[in-house]
Design a protein that fits this description.
alpha+beta, Helix Hairpins, rod-shaped
Length: 78
């Protein structure tokens, strides 16, 4: 996993997550390495799940009413 997790973007996290699976499938890995890879996989999975949700929270709509523009939050479903 990159040293600075806050610099991680969705695409690179997903790519790294995909690269971990084949590494975990190798039988020659020692237990310590397998645990480390598993931990990285969990962190990256969480990041990839949270990133779209957090982005959705920031979406706003520019509305025009009577010639003036307003920024309003995007309506959430549910």
């Amino acid at each position: 996993m990159p040293a600075k997790e806050n610099k991680l973007n969705f695409e690179s996290a997903l790519q790294e997550l995909e690269s971990i699976a084949p590494q975990m499938e190798q039988e020659k890995n020692c237990l310590g390495k397998s645990i480390k890879l598993y931990g990285q996989r969990i962190k990256l999975s969480r990041f990839c799940q949270e990133k779209p949700y957090n982005t959705e929270q920031k979406v706003q709509i520019l509305q025009e009413k009577q010639g003036k523009y307003y920024i309003v939050d995007f309506p959430r479903e549910g």
